[in-house]
């Protein structure tokens, strides 16, 4: 399949690092080699890293896009439990064994696990070689492939080790979403709804209207959705590469979301936990007066349309959830901080400060009433 | 001991990263806590990482310099064979186990092994926390602590994994060299002679004149020497943070040096191999006409004064050494490249290009005649 109607979204990497573009278009998976060579001409030899599921589905096409040059596929077993230092080590060693020098580059082909893991391999290989992100899940397209965060988990927690390593390019081909399971699609839509909630109410509502097309992976619906989400994320990231300021707004729903995810022993997926977290944080915002009344209810409608949960599962005790709140690494000096909506489509901004301190009382109220 | 006569050398980190200063002065080891807090105020909790030798000698004083605040010492067994991903992992886990968040910082107290290893821990901990480098060997003072390169070895080779992570500050106390064994002092002087060779002939000659004071660790001689070397390295690094251009001149002696080091099965230390490498590369420069006649001989005199070898050990076969030349990661597209002296104190510069292609013929000639 050849590429049609490519849209480019520019991203400022910040911190003196090279800017890059996200290319979105059907059929782009077959252009990876060509684009990679163009954006990182110093890289003469490439490897394609994928998990075994995505590798089996798309590895051949991506390797073939390097036009006969030796661009081997390196795979690892699929799943978050493989986003580890051990896999990072093995992939690094596989590259060393092939004699790859500084003039090499990495294609990260897959979901967020692959993007983070292969991105970290690239970030640390000989102190850094270029990576081209080719996201194949909705989570990866709308979230993890843009922004430059890479890393792996440790037994003690997620993403504890990593590096900022902005990609040389991001290549998004919405056609690959056809092979993604429906539940994974819903999972990724949680972050898309978040983008609507913090930046574009119409976009948020549009996700609900096109829910079935999105959940069933209709290419044109997916293409438009990921494009708009990437625009939102790219615009936030471009204005703040180091998560000191504006970038915090991308954490909407994530403070309570992470606590719920951890409290569930990861029985809730990240997207499910963030969906519930967004509803609770909107309710909390309404309670403390930062958020316009009714915003939480509008979020609930959108999230239910895309088959995501909106209430704390009754088996998750509020006290237990609160315990995990304290463990979050975004807590500074024991103070809980959260981003609030002003209303659907806009965050509450107290003079350029996006994250606000919250008291225990209202958090408990919201957790208990949910 | 209290600090006297502190000299600050500024370093431009480049790439949008924060600039930093190298502080040189006797007694500064007792100011580490104070300086660390001043240069990285976001870090509220610190750990001090050292190998067990240096930890036993200076760990208490550095931890005490944090003035009673909890600044624990984390140690690992001394030696290059511990500059591994496994040690990086264990140190990271020890930090996680102490609940250290983004508001933490790392002091790297030790030789180059500690600087590289602890620097890499800091570079990757929660995607990067500040590191303060406190070099305690001459190698670390004049070379590894400045410039931002961090990393570890893999079974396949040295420094294959790492990150650029410029320190928040470098603190150099020459008094600690008193406890460094004499052979390690000579080792570090190789890089100091290199700085003289590429940038300051008087400095190079001065090292020979003060050889015995330096080899026996006289504090004032050490202080002046490390200060001048740091000025040279800082000036080169400041003008080019990413090793694309000018920074290459710091590789003088290292192309053949690395090959000799590897060919010896690491029987030659790095400093010894670089000493021989500098002589051979100066001879090579004379042979191909880039280097003024007699420069190699002058280098030989300086290196011999500081008890470093200047000739290829006869048991290292020229062909074997050449084989290791090809394996160097600085070789691009199969072409050997080297930095040449114009004369002692100045590198050969062909219009802003510092590394020059070399042919196999003259390399073999020089290896065989040595
Ligand atoms: N770096 C960031 O900024 C960032 C942001 C959000 C999430 N993340 C990370 O992303 C990860 C989650 O991402 P994810 O949900 O994509 O997980 P994932 O990479 O494990 O993908 C989910 C599953 O879908 C499969 N898959 C992916 N694309 C497919 C396709 N086109 N067809 C068929 N199957 C496909 C994968 O093999 C996997 O089994 C987490 O580790 C999270 O920490 C990172
Ligand atoms: N990052 C860079 O730019 C860079 C540059 C040059 C070298 N390096 C690295 O530096 C390492 C070599 O450094 P090194 O020679 O300092 O090795 P090292 O850190 O192993 O120190 C050598 C020995 O001296 C001991 N020691 C250090 N300071 C002491 C003191 N004050 N008193 C008593 N003993 C002391 C150590 O315990 C160790 O046993 C190599 O791994 C090399 O790759 C890095
Ligand atoms: Zn998320
Ligand atoms: Zn060296």
TrEMBL record, chains A, B:
<keyword id="KW-0057">Aromatic amino acid biosynthesis</keyword>
<keyword id="KW-0963">Cytoplasm</keyword>
<comment type="pathway">
    <text>Metabolic intermediate biosynthesis; chorismate biosynthesis; chorismate from D-erythrose 4-phosphate and phosphoenolpyruvate: step 2/7.</text>
</comment>
<keyword id="KW-0479">Metal-binding</keyword>
<feature type="binding site">
    <location>
        <begin position="112"/>
        <end position="116"/>
    </location>
    <ligand>
        <name>NAD(+)</name>
    </ligand>
</feature>
<keyword id="KW-0028">Amino-acid biosynthesis</keyword>
<keyword id="KW-0170">Cobalt</keyword>
<feature type="domain" description="3-dehydroquinate synthase N-terminal">
    <location>
        <begin position="75"/>
        <end position="184"/>
    </location>
</feature>
<keyword id="KW-0547">Nucleotide-binding</keyword>
<dbReference type="InterPro" id="IPR030960">
    <property type="entry name" value="DHQS/DOIS_N"/>
</dbReference>
<dbReference type="InterPro" id="IPR050071">
    <property type="entry name" value="Dehydroquinate_synthase"/>
</dbReference>
<feature type="binding site">
    <location>
        <position position="158"/>
    </location>
    <ligand>
        <name>NAD(+)</name>
    </ligand>
</feature>
<protein>
    <recommendedName>
        <fullName>3-dehydroquinate synthase</fullName>
        <ecNumber>4.2.3.4</ecNumber>
    </recommendedName>
</protein>
<comment type="function">
    <text>Catalyzes the conversion of 3-deoxy-D-arabino-heptulosonate 7-phosphate (DAHP) to dehydroquinate (DHQ).</text>
</comment>
<feature type="binding site">
    <location>
        <position position="254"/>
    </location>
    <ligand>
        <name>Zn(2+)</name>
    </ligand>
</feature>
<dbReference type="Pfam" id="PF01761">
    <property type="entry name" value="DHQ_synthase"/>
</dbReference>
<comment type="similarity">
    <text>Belongs to the sugar phosphate cyclases superfamily. Dehydroquinate synthase family.</text>
</comment>
<keyword id="KW-0456">Lyase</keyword>
<dbReference type="Pfam" id="PF24621">
    <property type="entry name" value="DHQS_C"/>
</dbReference>
<dbReference type="GO" id="GO:0003856">
    <property type="term" value="F:3-dehydroquinate synthase activity"/>
</dbReference>
<feature type="domain" description="3-dehydroquinate synthase C-terminal">
    <location>
        <begin position="188"/>
        <end position="331"/>
    </location>
</feature>
<feature type="binding site">
    <location>
        <position position="270"/>
    </location>
    <ligand>
        <name>Zn(2+)</name>
    </ligand>
</feature>
<feature type="binding site">
    <location>
        <position position="149"/>
    </location>
    <ligand>
        <name>NAD(+)</name>
    </ligand>
</feature>
<keyword id="KW-0520">NAD</keyword>
<feature type="binding site">
    <location>
        <position position="191"/>
    </location>
    <ligand>
        <name>Zn(2+)</name>
    </ligand>
</feature>
<keyword id="KW-0862">Zinc</keyword>
<dbReference type="InterPro" id="IPR056179">
    <property type="entry name" value="DHQS_C"/>
</dbReference>
<feature type="binding site">
    <location>
        <begin position="136"/>
        <end position="137"/>
    </location>
    <ligand>
        <name>NAD(+)</name>
    </ligand>
</feature>
<dbReference type="InterPro" id="IPR030963">
    <property type="entry name" value="DHQ_synth_fam"/>
</dbReference>
<dbReference type="InterPro" id="IPR016037">
    <property type="entry name" value="DHQ_synth_AroB"/>
</dbReference>
């Amino acid at each position: 399949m050849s590429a049609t109607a490519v849209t480019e979204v520019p991203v400022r990497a910040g911190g003196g690092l090279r800017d890059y573009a996200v290319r979105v278009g059907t059929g782009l998976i077959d252009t990876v080699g060509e684009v990679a060579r163009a954006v990182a001409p110093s890289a003469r030899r490439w490897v394609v890293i994928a998990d075994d599921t995505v590798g089996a589905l798309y590895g051949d096409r991506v390797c073939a896009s390097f036009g006969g040059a030796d661009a081997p596929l390196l795979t690892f077993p699929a799943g978050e439990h493989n986003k580890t230092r051990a896999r990072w080590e093995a992939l690094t060693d596989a590259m060393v064994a092939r004699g790859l020098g500084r003039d090499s580059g990495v294609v990260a082909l897959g979901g967020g696990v692959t993007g983070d893991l292969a991105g970290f391999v690239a970030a640390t290989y000989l102190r850094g070689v270029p990576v081209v992100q080719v996201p194949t899940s909705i989570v990866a397209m709308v979230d993890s492939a843009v922004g430059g965060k890479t890393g792996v988990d440790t037994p003690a927690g997620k993403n504890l080790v990593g590096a900022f390593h902005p990609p040389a390019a991001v290549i998004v081909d919405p056609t690959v979403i056809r092979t993604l399971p429906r539940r994974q699609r819903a999972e990724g839509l949680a972050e898309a709804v978040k983008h609507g909630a913090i930046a574009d109410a119409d976009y948020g509502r549009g996700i609900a209207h096109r829910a079935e097309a999105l959940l069933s992976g209709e290419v044109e619906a997916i293409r438009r959705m990921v494009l708009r989400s990437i625009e939102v994320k790219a615009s936030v990231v471009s204005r703040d590469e180091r998560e000191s300021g504006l970038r915090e707004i991308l954490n909407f729903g994530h403070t309570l979301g992470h606590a719920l995810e951890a409290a569930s022993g990861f029985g809730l997926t990240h997207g499910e936990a963030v969906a519930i977290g967004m509803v609770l944080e909107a309710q909390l915002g309404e309670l403390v007066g930062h958020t316009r009344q009714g915003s939480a209810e509008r979020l609930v409608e959108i999230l239910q349309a895309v088959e995501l949960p909106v209430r704390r599962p009754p088996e998750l005790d509020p006290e237990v959830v609160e315990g995990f709140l304290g463990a979050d690494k975004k807590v500074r000096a024991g103070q809980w901080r959260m981003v609030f909506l002003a209303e659907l489509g806009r965050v509450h901004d107290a003079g350029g400060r996006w994250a606000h301190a919250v008291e225990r009382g209202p958090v408990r109220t919201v957790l208990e009433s949910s």
